[in-house]
Design a protein that fits this description.
Order of helices and strands of chain A: HHHEHEHEHEHEHHEHEHHHH
Structural class of chain A: alpha/beta
CATH superfamily of the largest domain in chain A: P-loop containing nucleotide triphosphate hydrolases
Helix content of chain A: 40-55%
Oligomer: homodimer
Chain lengths: 317, 317
Amino acid sequence: MASRTRDPVALAEAVLAGDRAALPRLVSVVEAGGAPAIEVGRRVFARSGDAYTVGITGPPGAGKSTLTDRLITALRRRDEEVAVLAVDPSSPFTGGALLGDRVRMVDHALDRGVFVRSIATRGHLGGLSLAVPEIVRVLDAAGFPIVLVETVGVGQSEVEIAGAADTTVVVLTPGAGDSVQANKAGLFEVADLFIINKADHAGTVELERDLRFMMELTSWPDGWRPPIVRTVAVQGDGVDELDDMIRAHRAHLESTGGLLVRRARRARAELERVVRERVAQEARNALGDVRYRALLDDVEAHRVDPWTAADRLLRAE
Amino acid sequence: MASRTRDPVALAEAVLAGDRAALPRLVSVVEAGGAPAIEVGRRVFARSGDAYTVGITGPPGAGKSTLTDRLITALRRRDEEVAVLAVDPSSPFTGGALLGDRVRMVDHALDRGVFVRSIATRGHLGGLSLAVPEIVRVLDAAGFPIVLVETVGVGQSEVEIAGAADTTVVVLTPGAGDSVQANKAGLFEVADLFIINKADHAGTVELERDLRFMMELTSWPDGWRPPIVRTVAVQGDGVDELDDMIRAHRAHLESTGGLLVRRARRARAELERVVRERVAQEARNALGDVRYRALLDDVEAHRVDPWTAADRLLRAE
């Protein structure tokens, strides 16, 4: 146990056997992507699917990190284990993501029932929406019954990531025209719960009124109308109510079959993505094949037509 | 001969055997695309590669069609057979492309050494840049030693199509800021020859001065600096000079090896395109496979991981 191996399969086996000390390295393998990440995905897949995922998103400065920390405390009070994946838009040059981990870990550093990991959005070049679900799967397979995914609600992929959770919490703050921003960023569509954080600030009543007005204009086909919860996260106010509302939404999804529908939609999206990636890779391989140059010569000389050449490259004839 | 068959292979065989009456139907098969077009491409490929292609492009209203007609007359005077493919931006609703054929055919209708075909850009939905080279290949294989491709120099794909010819002629007119437009549309980069048509109009001197100034700022790595030819196409003025300049450019390309380089680049681009199309089709087939639903069920139930499912869909395991 707790060996220093970096072999993906050995790390996955260790984590599946309950070795949480191997989890940070396993997450790093998956975050880096490529063939080792797929190997890990294949290995842990059958053991995943039990975790309940909660996305927490909203504009920068809404207090999402503080709220997440308080939610962890609430969950731990009831002895629930929890893993947190924070998608941090910090530049890799400032070490923002790593610093974030340290700050977050202060309260929960000695608690083996809590796992916190930040990943930076920079350097992922659009691959973020691929890496996050795979990391969540690893945390799920590691046995955490609840996985929180915190993203900044700026940018389509960040909103999509949080919106792909079982329950999505959208955090807003009074003032600053947040309700309008939420609408623009697509946050309104993904919300299962609205939090008005910093609810001791002026503008709380107006923000809630705006949200209720926007909800009037929206249909809720699956019978769940997002509740609005006021919190003051720095004081811990309203956090238990948030926890209760997440549970209420989960109970709703489980009783109506909505949870199965959401998860089936995610499974479908992932399978389609994997198929498309596979064939794109196949094209890159074919065009990087050692026979490519020789076949191209044949095509240039009109000895082989391009369709036959493509067949030979792709079918390894 | 001249049977009314629409079977792609039979049509291709007829055309390769010299039956020009089958050529319009064969072009229609290739224009429609899909598997029959590929079948034709495979069949005619070995017989193609001898035609010299000339692209003629420029802003709308520059007089490209008239110039093309006069060029046909000049070529016929020297007994050269010529095929013309006009990419016409007319709406399919007005029947513009067909009407264009009739107008163009007036002068050359009884001449078996001339073949003219217009295709509409509408309805191709981006597939134009695929269809045009395939149609040119058919005209080439049908034995036409010269193929003219006329496109409106508006829109990236139209400019690219004309720019993919052995010699590309860019037609401008005085006034209307054509030199600036030419620069914006990317026409400047593809030009091997510049035509100032309607050179009896005011602004001719200024346009030529602008073009020469822009050429000063450009490097011509393959040793050919585009000449500028003044024409008045409606009167036939300058058309012989255009014809001479096309020949001069061809002689340059043939003596320097530039023609082989251009054609090799086109062959490479086409092979890459065919490979990418093939694999994209493979992805569509896989996701439309009858086993897709069953495998998706297995993935949803966590019985099969998505990578294994993708393998099974793509490898027909």
